[in-house]
Structure formats: structure tokens, C-alpha cells
Specification:
The complex is a heterodimer of chains A (about 110) and B (about 120).
Chain A lengths: L2 E3 L3 E5 L4 E8 L6 E6 L6 E6 L3 E5 L2 E6 L4 E6 L8 E8 L7 E3 L3 E6 L1
Parallel strand pairs in A: 2-11
Antiparallel strand pairs in A: 1-3, 3-8, 4-5, 4-9, 6-7, 7-8, 9-10, 9-11
Chain B lengths: L4 E3 L2 E4 L5 E6 L6 E7 L6 E7 L2 E5 L7 E4 L6 E5 L8 E8 L9 E2 L3 E5 L1
Parallel strand pairs in B: 2-11
Antiparallel strand pairs in B: 1-3, 3-8, 4-5, 4-9, 5-6, 7-8, 9-10, 9-11
The chains are: A mainly beta (about 110), B mainly beta (about 120).
């Protein structure tokens, strides 16, 4: 089967660091994505991991462990504008037929 | 190219009516996906096309739903005999598949309200 799990909600304060975890089970594996979605808007691409390890992109980093079926998104120096839903997604099988999403983690950043 | 565009942005319809949504993908992208998203949930996959061929449909896609991509460019999603449970955001995404997967880019979505 295919399943992607992530926490429903997280809270943090401005300037802090937050880690959003994601575990996945897919019939094949062809990459793990993180998207950001503000309320009422479309998801926007943040990061893509296909090999194990940490990918850093400015304040955002994403980590992947294929053997553990685990990823996390690390957000540093949090800003109020980072309040959004963060979606973990993976292609459904080796052919990458469809991007399967988790339910999203709603992050609330307070001052 | 300004990205993936969807039309209309909002649609209110009465139960039992048919509705059709349009998606224009990024021009060089050969794959086009339709998703449905309800409040507090992640996008749920409905169907996808590679060029004009519809390659996969989710079990979520009932017989009332049909999608086309006749020339391998824009796509339409039609819902017949709408029900209140069809109220959701319908998202379209496109990607450029060349034997390896890249990220999918999303349109702004069409918010459907069935009254």
C-alpha cells in the first residue's frame, strides 16, 4: 500500500528552529518532496530528495533516509510568514505515476 | 510562461448540475495531474495524463467524473450531477517527465461549492 504520515499541527516562535517529520510507505520509491501551502493558495515546491542525506536551501533543509522511510523538513530562523501547511509527498511507484501527499502539517509561528 | 493556470477560480453550482473546469499546464510539460483537496487534508490524486493519454485514474474518481486532454496541452475535468460532497478545491499540476521525476507545479485551483 501507499501511506504518508506527518503530524497534524505544530507551533513555534519567531526565530526558532522547527523540524517536521514524515514517514512514508510506497510500492516503489522515486523521490520525496516537500511543499508549502498557505491557506487558500496552491502548494508551492520547497525541496526534493532522492538520495539519502541532507539538502540545504537557505533557511529550509530536507533530510531523507530511504532505509527508514523517513524524511524531515527543517525550518530555521522562523518568520511569521512561515505559518502555513507543509505537505510531504512521494511518487507512488517506480514509474512515478502520481505524487501522493500526506495530510499536511499546519505550522503556526507566533511572535 | 506564467505557470499552471486554472479556470474558473471559483464555481458555485446547484446540486445535480454539471460543471467543467479547465487547466492549462506549463507549456513544455508533458504530464498533467488533477487533485482534489478538502479543508485540512492534503491533495488527493484523481487522475493524470502523459501527453494526451490518460494513464491512471484513482478509485476516488467516480463515474460522474471525466477528464480529457485531447491535444496533449490543456485539460478539462467535468463533474456530472454534482453532489454536495463534491465541494472541494480542484487542483491541477504539471511536470516534465523525461524518464526521471521532477517536481510538479500547481495551479491556483478551482474552488467548487455545491449548494
Amino acid at each position: 500500500g501507499q501511506n504518508i504520515d506527518q503530524p497534524t499541527e505544530m507551533t513555534a516562535t519567531e526565530g526558532a528552529i522547527v523540524q517536521i517529520n514524515c514517514t512514508y510507505q510506497t510500492s516503489g520509491f522515486n523521490g520525496l518532496f516537500w511543499y508549502q501551502q498557505h491557506a487558500g493558495e496552491a502548494p508551492t515546491f520547497l525541496s526534493y530528495n532522492v538520495l539519502d542525506g541532507l539538502e540545504e536551501k537557505g533557511r529550509f533543509s530536507s533530510f531523507l533516509s530511504r532505509s527508514k522511510g523517513y524524511s524531515y523538513l527543517l525550518l530555521k530562523e522562523l518568520q511569521m510568514k512561515d505559518s502555513a501547511s507543509y505537505l510531504c509527498a512521494a511518487w507512488g511507484n517506480q514509474a512515478g505515476t502520481a505524487l501522493i501527499f500526506g495530510k499536511g502539517t499546519t505550522l503556526s509561528v507566533s511572535s | 510562461d506564467t505557470g499552471v493556470s486554472q479556470d474558473p477560480r471559483h464555481k458555485i453550482t446547484k446540486r445535480g448540475q454539471n460543471v467543467t473546469f479547465r487547466c492549462d499546464p506549463i507549456s513544455e510539460h508533458n504530464r498533467l495531474y488533477w487533485y482534489r483537496q478538502t479543508l485540512g487534508q492534503g491533495p488527493e490524486f484523481l487522475t493524470y495524463f502523459q501527453n494526451e493519454a490518460q494513464l491512471e485514474k484513482s478509485r476516488l474518481l467516480s463515474d460522474r467524473f471525466s477528464a480529457e486532454r485531447p491535444k496533449g496541452s490543456f485539460s478539462t475535468l467535468e463533474i456530472q450531477r454534482t453532489e454536495q460532497g463534491d465541494s472541494a478545491m480542484y487542483l491541477c499540476a504539471s511536470s516534465n517527465y523525461r524518464g526521471g521525476n521532477t517536481e510538479a507545479f500547481f495551479g491556483q485551483g478551482t474552488r467548487l461549492t455545491v449548494v
